[in-house]
């Protein structure tokens, strides 16, 4: 079994009957997803993506990844939201946070840009690249998202100055809409190799499409294994008549806890390699569920680091939260604790034990303490952090998210709320067409 959901941290907060009552609702929501019979049904391509994907494009992704590895020292990945979080989460999940420093020979450094508007962050990457060779993977369905569009304008220019227009064309890979949009038009005009953001897959569900797969493959990760993991999860979580299916059970648990006033979910990890996985999860659930004045607020935490900061609140603060802990059983590599003469740090009782052993006791001890403090804990135990398990876990959360949205009575596949800040920003920047709004907003800012 690739992963297992454990009820240990939930038994004092709900009983099996409550879960049974949820079963018919979850089954109905599953039908809505499988039969594409409900809101957002134009965006359900992710449901079968692990088996129903463009095999010819998949082979092209693998080829492009090899070409990137051969021709550059640095790959710059430009995108925001669903157009970057999945790839970065996968790379860090499989290779760790320091992947750029510990990568093997022949693998480029990979930096993610265009996911903020910080000139400092952008200039740092330019400095890091220095005189070295680089390639660009620009990822944007629309091609008009402000953050990646600014970064791409700057890096396209840099690339053309360094390699000439012809040379740059071979170093820029565009992942975008198959037919429309500003980036597609530009890619056609300039002759970039393009990859497709499928029409029926929203950004936050797109990691297993070219959006995630090209940067992941370029980082040296086996994307075929990743798809295999996702395909096995799809198989395991396609249907079921009871909540024995972990994915259905998780969706039911979330809904039960939400109805009991637990409006915040903290996705907890015990390894910095999973921090970006937490960021990916946040977009997935926040854009899917947080609407119509409803939804569980998704946040993430890295333990034991955050036990020394927000741990106090989780143990003892407002009782409106629950935790979902992703515990990875096997570490990428382990360390054994040695002996110290005089035992000044008091750690000799751990001599000969591994750090992962200590971490596992921190996990168990925290679980019991937080449950005693009134914070329900969903436990998701994963065997390993590799490509297969990333694919598996990713599909588990995507499917649970679709089910959760329908259980909540919202359309999980739109994100109308994201437009509000953009409209204001465009108006304040003086974008043509926003003249009236500009006056109104400036008066509000000044008054
Ligand atoms: O790929 P695009 O069009 O640049 O959009 C990027 C992101 O912006 C959003 O549309 C809004 O946050 C996300 O859903 C998407 O992942």
Observed structural traits:
single chain, 447 residues, alpha/beta, 2 domains, five-stranded parallel sheet, binds 6-O-phosphono-beta-D-fructofuranose, Rossmann fold
Architecture blueprint of SSEs:
Layout: E1 3-6, H1 16-34, H2 55-71, E2 74-78, H3 85-95, H4 99-102, E3 109-113, H5 119-129, E4 134-139, H6 146-169, E5 172-176, H7 182-190, E6 193-196, H8 210-218, H9 223-236, H10 246-259, E7 264-269, H11 275-289, E8 297-302, H12 311-316, E9 321-330, H13 355-372, E10 377-384, H14 387-408, H15 419-429, H16 435-446
Parallel strand pairs: 2-3, 2-4, 4-5, 5-6, 7-8, 7-9, 9-10
Antiparallel strand pairs: 1-10
Helix pairs in contact: 1-10, 1-14, 2-8, 3-8, 3-11, 9-14, 10-14, 11-14, 15-16
What would CATH call the class of the largest domain? Answer: Alpha Beta
Which geometry do the CA atoms define?
A: globular
Unreliable segments of 5+ consecutive residues: none
Helix content: 40-55%
Biggest sheet character: 5 strands, mixed
Distance between the termini: 60 Å
Order of helices and strands: EHHEHHEHEHEHEHHHEHEHEHEHHH
Kindly report the CATH topology of the largest domain. Rossmann fold
Q: What bound compounds does this protein have? A: 6-O-phosphono-beta-D-fructofuranose
Instruction: Give the CATH architecture of the largest domain.
Output: 3-Layer(aba) Sandwich
User: Numbering strands along the chain, what is their spatial order in the largest sheet?
Assistant: 1-10-9-7-8
Q: Helix count?
A: 16
Bin the strand percentage.
Answer: 5-15%
**Mean pLDDT score, rounded?**
97
Count of distinct structural domains: 2
Give me the CATH superfamily of the largest domain: Glucose-6-phosphate isomerase like protein, domain 1
Question: What would you report as the Rg, rounded to the nearest angstrom?
Answer: 23 Å
Total strands: 10
């Amino acid at each position: 079994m690739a992963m297992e959901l454990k009820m240990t941290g939930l038994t004092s907060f709900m009983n099996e009957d409550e879960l049974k009552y949820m079963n018919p609702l979850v089954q109905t929501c599953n039908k809505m997803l499988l039969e594409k019979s409900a809101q957002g049904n134009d965006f359900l391509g992710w449901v079968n993506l692990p088996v129903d994907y463009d095999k010819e494009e998949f082979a092209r992704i693998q080829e492009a990844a090899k070409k990137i590895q051969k021709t550059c020292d640095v790959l710059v990945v430009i995108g925001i939201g669903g157009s970057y979080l999945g790839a970065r989460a996968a790379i860090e999940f499989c290779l760790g946070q320091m992947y750029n420093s510990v990568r093997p020979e022949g693998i480029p450094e990979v930096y993610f840009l265009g996911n903020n508007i910080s000139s400092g962050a952008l200039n740092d990457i330019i400095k890091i690249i220095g005189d070295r060779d680089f390639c660009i993977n620009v990822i944007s369905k629309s091609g008009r998202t402000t953050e990646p569009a600014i970064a791409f304008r700057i890096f396209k220019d840099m690339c053309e100055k360094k390699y000439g227009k012809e040379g740059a064309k071979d170093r820029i890979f565009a992942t975008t809409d198959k037919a429309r949009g500003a980036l597609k038009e530009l890619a056609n005009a300039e002759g970039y190799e393009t990859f497709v953001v499928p029409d029926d897959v929203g950004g936050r569900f797109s990691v297993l499409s070219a959006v995630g797969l090209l940067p992941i493959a370029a980082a040296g990760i086996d994307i075929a294994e990743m798809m295999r993991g996702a395909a096995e999860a799809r198989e395991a979580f396609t249907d079921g008549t009871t909540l024995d299916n972990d994915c259905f059970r998780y969706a039911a648990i979330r809904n039960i806890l939400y109805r009991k006033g637990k409006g915040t979910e903290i996705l907890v990890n015990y390894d910095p390699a999973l921090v970006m996985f937490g960021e990916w999860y946040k977009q997935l659930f926040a854009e899917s569920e947080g609407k119509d004045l409803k939804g569980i607020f998704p946040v993430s935490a890295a333990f034991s680091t955050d036990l020394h900061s927000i741990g106090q609140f989780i143990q003892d603060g407002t009782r409106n939260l629950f935790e979902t802990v992703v515990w990875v059983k096997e570490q990428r590599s382990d360390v054994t604790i040695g002996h110290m003469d005089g035992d000044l740090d008091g750690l000799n009782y751990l001599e000969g034990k591994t750090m992962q052993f200590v971490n596992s006791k921190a996990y168990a001890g925290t679980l019991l303490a937080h449950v005693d403090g009134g914070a329900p804990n969903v436990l998701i135990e994963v065997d390993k952090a590799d490509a297969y398990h990333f694919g598996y876990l990713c599909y588990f959360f995507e499917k649970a998210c679709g089910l959760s949205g329908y259980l909540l009575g919202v359309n999980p596949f739109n994100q109308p709320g994201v437009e509000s800040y953009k409209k204001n920003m465009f108006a304040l920047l003086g974008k043509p067409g926003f003249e009236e709004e500009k006056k109104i907003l400036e008066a509000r800012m000044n008054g």
